[in-house]
Specification:
Number of strands: 3
Radius of gyration: 15 Å
Strand content: 5-15%
Distance between the termini: 17 Å
Largest sheet: 3 strands, antiparallel
Number of helices: 6
Helix content: 40-55%
Structural class: mainly alpha
Amino acid sequence: MTSSADLAALLGREPRGPYEVVLKDPDGAPLVIRNGPVLEDGTPMPTRYWLVGKRARLAIDRLEAAGGVGAAETAVDAGELERAHQRYAAERDCAVPADWDGPRPSGGVGGTRRGVKCLHAHYAWFLVGGDDPVGRWVAQQLSAAGAPPGPACG
């Protein structure tokens, strides 16, 4: 089991809301967490899946620094990406408690409504089975660079 102190060490801060480790790397360390749709203070949390594995984050940091966000947006079909945002939002919205009357999270992957905001968020969702064309593209780029495309890069 992963403690909040373990997760805080990976995040660089204390977790601000409910979460669950949904994917671990081969060493058993957290790789992806699933956030609750609302933080403990009632703030909406649009990012459902969060990549927390150190090596995976670093690999994607490098990809983003090399222009990966723009490259991904150019490489994937805009309609397919839009449908992915809709699926992500629908999944997250289903997790909002039925009796919740406060502000709700919005947007799709990473909280954006269109395009690509964060390769980390797309890749995290892809790793846990999300049908995400950007996550798939990221996995291909990591593989081409010699980094394992899945949990082994956590």
